[in-house]
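Contributing new complexes? Match this layout with benzoyl coenzyme A.
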Amino acid sequence: MYAQLVETGVKHVKALEEMSPEERHFQEKIDAEIKIEAKNWMPEAYRQTLIRQISQHAHSEIVGMLPEGNWVTRAPSLKRKLQLMAKIQDEAGHGLYLYSAMETLGADRDDEIAKLHSGKAKYSSIFNYPTLSWADMGAVGWLVDGAAIVNQVVLQRTSYGPYARAMVRICKEESFHQRQGYEILLTMMRQGTQAQRDMVQDAINRLWWPALMMFGPSDEHSPNSAQSMAWKIKRQTNDELRQRFIDQTVPQLELLGCTAPDPHLKWNAERGHYDFGDIQWDEFYEVIKGNGPCNQERVATRRQAIEGGAWVREAAVAYARKQQNKNAA
Ligand code: BYC
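Output block (do not edit by hand):
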C-alpha cells in the first residue's frame, strides 16, 4: 500500500539500497515486527515523527476535555454527571500516558505544551467545534470516541514500544466511552420526547462530517503516511480507517433511527463497503490552520489553566524540596 502512496508524490521514502547500514538494520527490525524501545538506535526522522504524532495525540486528549467540561454542570442527572466526570478524568489520564511516552523520545513536555499554547502544535480538528446540547455529549462519545478507537486499535501495534503499550489501556477506556455515548443517544431516542429526538439528529448532523475528518487528509494528500507506514508507526492509512469507521457506524446509526447528513451514503455490495459523499477538505484545512469555530477559545482556556495553576506547581516543588532537606538533615 505505501509503495502506491510514494508514487503519488508524497514525502520520499528511502529504498533499502539508499539506507546507511544503521538505517537498514533499523528497517529490518521494523519489518520483523520487533518493537523499537527508547534506548535503541533510531533515525532522527523516526524520532521526530513520533514526537510530532504523540504530542499532537496528547494535546488532543487534553483539549478534548474542554467541549465535555462545558456540560458537567448541566448533565440531566447525577448518574450522567458522574459518568461525564469520569470520562473527562480518563481523557486527562490518556494525555498523561501519552506525554510520558513522548518524553521517552527525549522531548520536553513543557516545550511541547508551549507549542500548543502558541498555536504552533496541532491537536485533533474535532475539538474546535462547539457542543451545543446534551445530545452532543452522546454524539461525542459515540462518534468521536468511536473514530478515536478505530484509529487507536491499530496503534496498539505501532512499532514504538512505549506508544503501543500506552494505547492498550487507552483503547479499553475509549471503548467504554463509546458505549456510554451511544447509550445516551439510545435513551433519548427511545424514551425521550420529540424535542429530544430532534436534538439527537441535530447533534449527528453537526458532528458527522467533522468525525470523518478526524482520520486526516485522504491518502493521496497525506504527506506523512507513506513514511509512517514504512516505519509501521501507522499500520493502516487514513482512508482505510475512515472507511472502517463508516462501515461499522452506519448500522449503529440505523439502530438509533437516525440518518447521516450525506445523501450519497449507500451500501455498495460490490465493494463490500458503504460509499459516501465528498468531505469538505477546505473546512478541514481552515480548522487545522486555527480558523475553526472554537480554536481560539480552546487554546486560551488551556493557557489560562496552565498560568492559573502555576502556584500549585511551585508549592509542590517547594514542598518536595523541604521534605528532601528534612530527610538529608
Ligand atoms: N486534526 O500526513 P497526515 C482523542 C494533520 S482522538 C488536526 O495524514 P499523520 C480523543 C497532521 O498532523 C484524536 N490535524 O498526518 C477522543 C499533519 O500535520 P503536520 C487524537 C490533523 O500524522 C475522544 C497534516 O495534517 N488521535 O484524542 O500521518 C475524547 C497532514 O496529515 C488531523 C490521534 O492523534 C486532524 N484530524 O496522520 C478525547 C491519533 N489529521 O503535523 C480525546 C494519533 C491530520 O505534518 N495520530 N492532521 O503539521 C494519528 O493517527 C495521525 O497523526 C493522524 C494524521 C491520522 C491523525
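Reviewers usually confirm one structural detail per submission. For this one: The pocket of benzoyl coenzyme A is lined by residues 52-53, 56-57, 60-61, 64, 91, 122, 124-125, 144-145, 148, 151, 213-217, 222-225, 228, 234, 238, 288 (CB under 6 Å).
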